Amino acid sequence: MYELIYYNARGNPQDKKHSTAFSYLVSLHTTKTFHQYRQSPSSPNASVNLSTGHGSHLLVALPEKPTLHVYLYGKESPEQYIPLPEIMTCLSTYKDPNEKTPSLLLGGSISGRLYVWSLNSGLLITVKQAHYQPLTHIAAYSGFIATGSKDSRVVIHSLNTLLINGCDDDLKSDNAFAILTDHTLPITSLNFNKGLNNDLKLVTSSLDSTVRVYSITLSSQAKLATTIVSTDAVTSVALDPAMRALYLGLNNGQIRYVPLFKANPRTKVIEAVGGLGKIVTLKPDVDYLDTFTCHQDHHKNASDLFISQLKLSLDGTLLVSGDSKGCLFVVDITTKQIRKKLKELVGEISNIELWTIKADDSKFDNSGVDKSVMRFIPILKRSIMEEKDLNNQNLLMKLTTTGPKDVWNLSKFLKDVQSEEKV
After folding, report:
1. Fewest CB within a 10 Å sphere: which of 117, 338, 350, 407?
2. Could you give the strand order of the β-sheet that contains 144-149, starting from the edge strand earlier in sequence?
């Protein structure tokens, strides 16, 4: 199994033609580059891949224009230019666990609105005035959509409520699942843990130097479980896949490791750090035992350096980090050694995505042009859908043939076991 890294940057604001703005899809463990995209600058967290390989699409929201660039894998230049209602400052998608590709596109605007589009039809399902300042991050998982903004608030929506009350423009207290107001400065990252529905947690970070972990349940909404106070402003956060630790990207170019479980020095029993509303204050790491300094060392302690993006590999052993200068490193977590330095980009690293593929995946072979590939996505509507749109909507989908599934036959199994016992 291979792991791929997609990354892009904000680009140079003075370059109006975006001639220096590139995106790359590369291998995590080797030097192979799978694809390069041109003219693809975006604000932080404002680009998203719908899938990978031949027939997949990359969506990039331009940082200073209400325009969406749509790229088709295998082609460097944009395949579509879709006008948007306003400038989008962040993008995300929602994928049902039973689906292979996302069904909803989520956009956060410069005016604080949350847009929800159907990717199969292009219909604008709902628009919510979630915040009063630009959105900075959108996270979606297990029927919940969380939005963070420069107004320091985090709003959690229930997907069912958004779809049922699609035509209601006002964000009332009974429409939002929860409104979190514990932070005091702009939100920098939102992360759901990929666990069970009854153990869902949301990790938020802010420029107020705090990271907060909320426990989310349908019965009790969102409860603050742990508050981590850092030594510097937190600009990005990565979660360990097993929720064993957090990695905090700081505004001084360092990355701080925060374990969520520690051994009790008296009983030697592993205990959870935090929980039940506790406040955990991090002490200065003078000896750099829990600190990664690869970005700080590379840029010689630059004053305006900060970690903009963090991601962890599937097994939790490699850390992929990007900074405000356009540099990216793949670091071994155990030894803190740099495994790989990726190609530098112009401007702040805006987005990092990690994908896993099979070694023999036919989507990445160069066997020629597939004429059956859907080159375009539906045009995204700029007005909220009405009832007549639901009755007359056109779905753009590619239907594939699948072989018959093997159904487990209980009676045959019992007969086989019975015959084996006789022998």
Report:
1. 407
2. 135-141, 144-149, 154-158, 178-180
